[in-house]
Structure formats: structure tokens, C-alpha cells
Amino acid sequence: MEENLESLIKKDVTHGRGYVYSLMYHIVWCTKYRKAIFQGGIETELSAYLQKTAGDLQMDILAMEVMPDHIHMLVSCKPQLRLSDAIKILKGNSARWLFLAHPEMKGQLWGGHLWNPSYFVVTVSDRSQEQITRYIETQKQR
């Protein structure tokens, strides 16, 4: 029976203490009122900040694109991570950081809010990972 189990486990799964997993999510969230504000180098700074924050949360960003008015991320994370909390941290911390690093940005936003309160998330299988990665990486070409 153990041999059958090993044949089912792929090489791209992650092993933890007492568990094996492969959890990937495509996450998208937008600026408030879809205001296009990530331009002129801010998108590069934001991308680096999100990479660091995701690393602190023990999330691996497999693909990411910061568009002028929204963000696409393909992430892999542990089953213990509560995804809604992680997204809340990514959005909240990045907004606070951006407003401190670029105080002029707050004046461009009605009500001083950076992010729309909602977000989109969908699970990604091993079969669709390549397709989602290509979709994210070609966002600026669309």
C-alpha cells in the first residue's frame, strides 16, 4: 500500500512534518475604483514589498504581475496558513507601506483608501499551473 501512495505523490509537492501538500492559489485584487496608480517605478517597489511580505508569511510567489490598477499573484502556501488572513495582511501592510513611502499617492485616491475591500481567489491544480503562470506573465501585453 505504501508503494501505491508514493506513486501518487508527485515530485512537486511539499513535505511537512506529518503531511504532504500542493496548494496553489491565483489571487487578484484591485485598487479602489480601479484607479491606475502603479506606474513610474512604484510597481517595481510594490512587487518587491509583496515578495518580502509573502516570504514572512511563508508563502511562495510563483508568478506575479503588478498592473496599473490591480495585482495578480500565483502563490503556494502551507495548509496551516489561513488564506483570507494572508490576503488581509498583504493588502493592509502594502497600503500602509505605500502611503508612508509615497505620501503623494494618498491624494490621488478618493477617501484615501488604496484597495477595494474585495478580492478574487481560485485554486490552481498542477495541470493548470503553467496556463495560469503564462496568463499572469502576459498581463501587460493584453
Structural class: alpha+beta
Question: How many DSSP-defined strands?
Answer: 6
How far is the first residue's CA from the last residue's CA? Answer: 48 Å
SSE sequence, one letter per element: HEEEHEEHHEH
Shape: globular
* Biggest sheet strand line-up: 4-5-3-6
The largest pleated sheet is described as: 4 strands, antiparallel
Poorly predicted ranges: none
The percent range for helix content is 25-40%
Provide the residue-averaged pLDDT: 89
Question: Rg from C-alpha positions?
Answer: 17 Å
Helix run count: 5
**How big a fraction of the residues is strand?**
15-25%
What does this structure look like?
This protein has helices spanning about 1-10, 40-55, 85-100, 105-110, 130-135; strands at about 15, 20, 25-30, 60-65, 70-75, 120-125. α2 crosses α3 (about 85-100). The longest helix is centred in the middle third of the chain and has 19 residues, at about 85-100. It has five helices and six strands; from the N terminus they run αβββαββααβα. It has a four-stranded antiparallel sheet with strand order 4-5-3-6, sandwiched between helices. It has a two-stranded antiparallel ribbon with strand order 1-2. It has about 140 residues and is α+β, with helices and mostly antiparallel strands. The chain is globular and about 50 Å long. Helix content is about 40%, strand content about 25%.
SSE topology sketch:
Elements: H1 2-8, E1 14-16, E2 19-21, E3 24-30, H2 42-56, E4 59-66, E5 70-77, H3 83-101, H4 104-108, E6 120-124, H5 129-137
Antiparallel strand pairs: 1-2, 3-5, 3-6, 4-5
Helix pairs in contact: 2-3
